[in-house]
Each structure stands twice: as structure tokens, then as C-alpha cells.
Amino acid sequence: MNMLKAGTRMKSAVCDAEVMVIKVPAGECQLSCGGQPMIAMAATRDAAAALPAAEDNGCLVGKRYVDAADTIEVLCTKGGKGAIRANGQALTVKQAKALPSSD
């Protein structure tokens, strides 16, 4: 577990996914992608690491992902095959806010 800061960029250890942290929860948080903890942008991926079939939901570039309580938000800056999780909880695509009608 580590303390995340807004603006931190991380990448997956098992696929091409990259994210930027937008909103952080209070306390420690472990981001993972494809079942493995995410690593710093400067770190190198382990060539032997494989993506488990159960974790291949994928993440889409340009989408924001949040947890159910809306305590963490990450922006996918490079898409990949792995599913993004925070503290083991799956993150889902953040839905756009409905605009008020102009009637």
C-alpha cells in the first residue's frame, strides 16, 4: 500500500495501460491493473508477467474510472487489456453528469 497524490502517473505491470490519479482517498490506497500492483512510469515491466483471463476487462483511453463510493478517480491515459482496481475493488467508468434542460 502507498499514499497516492493527485497528478501521479502510473502504468500496469502486465499490459499497456497507463493512468493519472485525479482524486485520492484519505489514507493508503493500492492501485492495480490486471491483478498486479501498478508501477511507477520510470519502472520497467517484468517480461514474464502475464495477464490473467479473469482480469482482462480492459480500460479505455480518455475514460475516468471511479470506485462505488467515489473516493478515488483515475484517468486512463493509455488503454490496455487489464481491469483497474483500487484496494481490490473494481473501478468503473464514471458516468457524465446530466445537463439541465434549457426549456
Cα end-to-end separation: 49 Å
Helix content range: under 10%
The total count of strands amounts to: 10
Low-confidence stretches are none
Describe the fold and architecture.
The termini are far apart. This protein is 0% helix and 31% strand. The chain is built from no helices and ten strands. By secondary structure, the chain is an all-beta fold.
Brief write-up:
By secondary structure, this protein is an all-beta fold. Helix content is about 0%, strand content about 30%. The protein is built from no helices and ten strands.
Helix-strand layout with pairing:
Blueprint: E1 9-11, E2 18-23, E3 31-33, E4 36-37, E5 39-40, E6 64-66, E7 73-78, E8 84-86, E9 89-90, E10 92-93
Antiparallel strand pairs: 1-2, 1-5, 2-7, 3-4, 3-8, 6-7, 6-10, 8-9
List keywords for this structure.
103 residues; mainly beta; 6-stranded antiparallel β-sheet; 4-stranded antiparallel β-sheet; 10 strands; 31% strand
